[in-house]
C-alpha cells in the first residue's frame, strides 16, 4: 500500500502524502519521545522528519520499505535535535534488580495506571534503550529490522534490548516502591 | 516476568500524537515549501536566461565601444575586455553557487 502512495506523491499528488501522516505519526511521535522526552520537541522533530521525507521522496530508492526509511529519518532528526539542544537528560543508572519486580502489585494496577508506569519508565530510560524497546515490541520489528532502522549492529541491538528489558523492569519496580 | 507478559506490558507504551492539528499544520508546511521550491526553480531558470542575454549584449557592446570615434586604442580596448571577463566570471560564479545551494537546500 505504501508503494502505491509513494508513486502517487511522486507523480505530483501532494494530498496523497496525508496517508503517511495518518499512518505513521503516532509511532514516529513515540520514537521521537524515546529520545527527546519532551512532547513539544518530539512534535517538532516528527514534523521536520515528515517534511524531509516528502522532499526526499524522489530519491527514495525502495531498497528498503518506506517505513524503515522514514523511521530512520525520524531517529536522525531526533538525535540531531537532542544534540543541538544539548539538554542534559539524566540517564537512568542501572541500580536495579529485575528479580525484585512485584508482579502481583503490577497486575493489581488498572490499565491506566499500568500505562502511566510504562510511560514514566520509558521517559527515564536512556534514549537508545527506549527506541529499541518500542521498535521491537510495538512495531514487532525483528532484530534485523531494528538494525536496518537504527543503523546499529546486530550484536549491539541485542545487548541494548537485553539491557533495556532489565532497565525497564527495574524502573517500574522503583516506581512501584515509591508509590 | 516472562516475554509474553513483558510484551503485553509494552503495549501501554504506544503514544498518540497529542496535537490534533499536527496533520493540517504539516500538510500546510509541505504545500508552502513546495510553492517556494517551484518559484525558486522558475527564478533560477530566468537568471540563467538573463545571464546569457547579458553575456551576448556585453560581448557586442565591448566590441562596439572600441570602434566608436575617440575611443580607439589598445589600452582602452583591453580595459573593456578585462572588465567584461571579470563581470562574466563573477556572474557565472554567483549563478553556479546559487543553483548548487538551491538544489540541495530547498
UniProtKB/TrEMBL annotation, chain A:
Ranges of residues in domain RNA polymerase sigma factor 70 region 4 type: 118-168
An individual GO BP term: DNA-templated transcription initiation
DNA-binding listed as a keyword: yes
Keywords: DNA-binding, Sigma factor, Transcription, Transcription regulation
Coiled coil ranges: none
MF GO annotations: DNA binding; sigma factor activity
RNA polymerase sigma-70 region domain residues: 22-86
NCBIfam families associated with the record: sigma70-ECF
Family according to the record: Belongs to the sigma-70 factor family. ECF subfamily.
This protein's name: RNA polymerase sigma-70 factor, ECF subfamily
The organism of origin for this protein: Chitinophaga terrae
Amino acid at each position: 500500500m505504501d508503494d502505491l502512495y509513494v508513486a502517487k506523491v511522486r507523480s505530483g499528488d501532494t494530498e496523497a502524502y496525508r496517508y503517511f501522516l495518518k499512518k505513521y505519526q503516532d509511532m514516529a511521535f513515540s520514537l521521537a519521545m524515546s529520545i527527546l522526552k519532551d512532547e513539544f520537541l518530539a512534535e517538532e522533530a516528527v514534523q521536520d522528519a515528515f517534511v524531509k521525507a516528502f522532499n526526499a521522496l524522489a530519491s527514495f530508492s525502495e531498497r528498503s520499505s518506506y517505513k524503515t526509511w522514514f523511521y530512520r529519518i525520524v531517529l536522525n532528526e531526533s538525535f540531531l535535535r537532542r544534540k543541538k539542544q544539548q539538554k542534559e537528560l539524566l540517564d537512568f543508572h542501572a541500580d536495579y534488580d529485575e528479580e525484585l519486580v512485584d508482579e502481583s502489585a503490577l497486575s493489581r494496577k488498572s490499565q491506566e495506571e499500568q500505562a502511566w508506569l510504562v510511560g514514566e519508565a520509558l521517559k527515564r530510560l536512556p534514549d537508545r534503550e527506549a527506541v529499541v524497546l518500542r521498535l521491537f515490541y510495538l512495531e514487532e520489528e525483528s532484530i534485523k529490522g531494528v538494525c536496518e532502522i537504527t543503523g546499529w549492529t546486530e550484536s549491539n541491538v541485542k545487548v541494548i534490548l537485553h539491557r533495556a528489558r532489565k532497565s525497564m523492569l527495574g524502573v517500574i519496580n522503583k516506581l512501584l516502591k515509591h508509590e | 516476568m516472562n516475554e509474553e507478559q513483558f510484551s503485553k506490558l509494552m503495549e501501554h507504551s504506544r503514544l498518540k500524537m497529542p496535537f490534533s492539528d499536527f496533520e493540517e499544520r504539516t500538510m500546510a508546511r509541505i504545500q508552502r515549501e513546495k510553492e517556494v521550491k517551484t518559484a525558486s526553480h522558475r527564478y533560477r531558470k530566468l537568471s540563467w536566461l538573463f545571464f546569457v542575454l547579458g553575456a551576448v549584449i556585453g560581448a557586442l557592446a565591448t566590441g562596439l565601444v572600441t570602434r566608436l570615434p575617440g575611443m580607439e586604442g589598445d589600452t582602452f580596448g583591453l580595459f573593456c575586455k578585462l572588465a567584461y571577463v571579470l563581470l562574466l566570471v563573477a556572474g557565472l560564479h554567483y549563478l553556479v553557487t546559487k543553483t548548487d545551494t538551491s538544489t540541495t537546500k530547498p
